[in-house]
Specification:
Layout (H helix, E strand, L loop, with lengths): L1 E4 L2 E4 L3 H19 L3 H5 L11 H9 L7 H22 L1 H22 L9 H11 L11 H20 L6 H21 L1
Antiparallel strand pairs: 1-2
Helix pairs in contact: 1-4, 3-5, 4-5, 4-6, 5-6, 5-8, 6-7, 6-8, 7-8
Length: about 190
Amino acid sequence: MGISSGKRRIVFNSPVILGFTAVCFAALLLNFLTHGVTNALFFSVYRSSLAQPFTYVRFFGHVFGHANWEHFIGNIMLILVVGPLLEEKYGSADMVFVITVTAFVTGLAHFLFFPHIQLLGASGVVFAFILLSSFTSFQEGTIPLTFLLVAVIYIGGQVYDGLFVQDNVANLTHILGGIVGAGLGFLGNRKS
């Protein structure tokens, strides 16, 4: 599917990544329009009663919410750069699976271990994609050097930041996202 303009046409090349971006943008607009109510209800995860149906929505929905424009741009730019290449290699269904598993794992971990802190944003998905991308040239019986370098630089950096830097960044989410991406990349490439 594409839009033509003379000899060039715009192609809808990555439906999952573009759809994910659109949902994140819509969540950001809703957050601004509702002065944070939609982020609190749907697009962030925090400890709440398991009897509340929205608790389960938030386990997955937190990856769509962003605190502000800068937060959104920081995550979405990386997703738009890495995501289409991954979707082309692994397919749309696998990308939905990676996003869903990453959302659930990071949401559940945050729910259990950080009960009084609200988590939102797609950074876990970003880290999953970054580590998954290092498996694009994987061959059976080998470990890509790019994977080792990315793991040391990104995961090591997040461990360091988590221990020594006091900021509002959810380093555990980044680490878990990276682990999900690496694990799924290893398993997915092993099967093929």
